[in-house]
Design goal:
Order of helices and strands of chain A: EHHEHEHEEHEEEHHHEEHEEEH
Oligomer: homodimer
CATH topology of the largest domain in chain A: Aspartate Aminotransferase, domain 2
Strand content of chain A: 5-15%
Shape of chain A: globular
Number of domains of chain A: 2
Helix content of chain A: 25-40%
Number of strands of chain A: 13
Strand order of the largest sheet of chain A: 2-8-7-6-5-3-4
CATH superfamily of the largest domain in chain A: Type I PLP-dependent aspartate aminotransferase-like (Major domain)
Structural class of chain A: alpha/beta
Largest sheet of chain A: 7 strands, mixed
Chain lengths: 355, 355
């Protein structure tokens, strides 16, 4: 820290992204929940023809992309805000809807960026523990003052919450915001987007990084009533008006035009997920029910940290969080069938070697 | 504003970007200081071959791009931070190096985003008036406590400050930061990058949006001593770790490998600038000395707002700021020779019609 760094950030602990090895070809990469498939060829062809000339600024309104998103979800364009990845829309939400009088409420086990955003914005927060089985019970949020952040499905557990529970939470207190972070929603979890017309206290955040194979392009978005999106736009135009670049915007539109490609990839990932779950359970692992493109697994036969390190030694990267309650677990991204077969084979070998 | 919007932003006035007309073909666009030339063909070819697969996250360290920038400027990679446009590095600087005890100091006439960043971050600021002739005198900053932001060349005036003056400002108080915003430096203004090894209180910000014809890609960067860049990285990893997308990163590297293309375009723009200045002066305009890819011009024969509106009616977009001291001026981006000829011809016609 330099002598110039503002005291207000002296306690800030930045987010630590998953490993991005420089020599990726050495690893089967199952650690950052990316899609194993490239973006749709039709999307690439669309972007090649429709990217705004690069010497001009990108459209600060991202009007074409915003309209395409609005059409996809059956809402008005003024109910959509596109951002530089979904971390940006989440940060905007912490900025706009939390402060000293309005703390953030989120689970003890969830996306690790929430406490960082709270720290960055000097927002107090309260951790609401998940139940013993890692399930989230919305009743635990009742009667508490603050803006609620729920990852659905949750990370790193993968466990989904039905929309009926989100509805119950929204109805319980219409005077506070609920942010539903649906980064992984397309892999079998119910989306709450359908509720934004009914609840003016709901913000749903999604991303192109997972089901749409576009983590490299950095494209996220929020969907909410017009008033909330207007607030978030006030933040955006005070932070980075041209936040989405022209190439990403065009490719994003292209991806939306080929929804069948995305849905087919999601079906494949869900099949591979079931294949992997069955394989790990056969090896004695406990695997939480997942509505995401990853699973959360643990075993009594190999400790979580050791499992992570042993897999890495053998060329497979998964993610281990050295954190209370989950240090014996690993989060495993679902990739191709071949990758998952390799994971199962390597796991079997590891367990045999430990005998 | 929704009932949920945090009180802390109730007075926030967002930045207003220059007009981006949806039907751009209707206008000669001289209002947002873009380059009239496309990015280097060699850069596009490089990016086509070297963009990381889109399904994977972009490199959070932007290591290859950072190294290419470091090599370009003869500094270490740890002295460089790439960002999503230079607005992002400027905002990070307001976050990291200003607070209640450490106000921001900047000119009354300068980049209009500085007061917005100050408002966003609850940072007090003091406006230091430019001299009567719009020149900036660094002595006016001596003895004042706070972090200094200087656009060099300044916007919207275009007036450059020699490095010897920046040096004098840095030496006068080594216990405060000076941020030199060099968005337009490549058009004949001296850069202060050479001072970063000598002064640990200097941050230089630059962009690919102007001389490098890549406004659509959103790529900016800061260069400073390692300790300051480390502070800014703490902010980045708490805000948006994957802030630069993979396509922009690859194209940025490609652009740096073809420096001669950039330099040739800058020479052309500077020639067109001299051509435009001579033409406007012949029509009785006053034009400030410019070290940028735009000029700031006024005339006693046509009021600034009227000149802007009349040009727009005739298909030429320039930028007018309805603001004290400069409401009689227009900022005119330097484009191709043909565009500037059209500006001069239209201006002559306007003046003749007013007789």
């Amino acid at each position: 820290m330099s002598r110039f760094f503002s005291k207000k950030y002296s306690g800030l602990e930045p987010y630590v992204p998953g490993e991005q090895p420089s020599d990726m070809s050495r690893y089967i990469k199952l650690n950052t929940n990316e899609s194993p498939f490239p973006p749709s060829p039709k999307a690439l062809a669309y972007a090649a023809q429709n990217t705004r000339p690069q010497n001009l600024y990108s459209d600060p309104e991202s009007a074409l992309l915003t309209k395409a998103l609005a059409d996809t979800y059956g809402v008005k364009p003024r109910m959509v805000l596109a951002t530089n990845g979904s971390d940006e829309i989440l940060n905007f939400a912490f900025m706009a809807f939390c402060d000293e009088d309005n703390p953030a409420l989120f689970a003890d086990i969830t996306y690790g960026f929430y406490p960082v955003f709270a720290g960055l914005n000097a927002v107090p927060y309260e951790l609401i523990p998940l139940r013993e089985d890692f399930s989230l019970c919305v009743d635990d949020y009742f009667g508490k003052k603050g803006t609620v952040f729920i990852a659905n499905p949750n990370a790193p557990t993968g466990m989904p919450l039905p929309v009926s529970e989100i509805r119950r939470l929204l109805e319980a207190d219409r005077n506070r915001i609920v942010v539903v972070d649906e980064a992984y929603v397309d892999f079998g979890t119910e989306s709450s987007v359908g509720l934004v017309k009914e609840f003016d206290n709901l913000l749903v955040c999604q991303t192109f990084s997972k089901s749409r194979s576009f983590a490299g392009g950095r494209l996220g978005y929020g969907i909410a009533c017009e008033a909330l999106i207007a607030d978030l736009n006030t933040i955006k135009y005070s932070t980075n008006p041209y936040n989405v670049n022209s190439m990403t915007s065009a490719l994003g539109i292209g991806i939306l035009t080929d929804g069948e490609y995305t849905r087919a990839n999601c079906r494949t990932i869900m099949e591979n997920r079931e294949f992997t779950v069955r394989g790990l359970e056969a090896l004695g692992f406990r695997v939480l029910p997942s509505g995401a493109n990853f699973i959360f697994a643990s075993s009594d036969r190999i400790e979580g940290g050791e499992y992570y390190r042993s897999l890495k030694d053998r060329g497979i990267l998964v993610r281990h969080f050295d954190k209370e309650r989950i240090s014996n677990w690993c989060r495993i991204t679902i990739g191709t069938k071949e990758s998952m077969q390799a994971l199962l084979d390597t796991t079997r070998t590891l367990l045999e070697e430990k005998r």
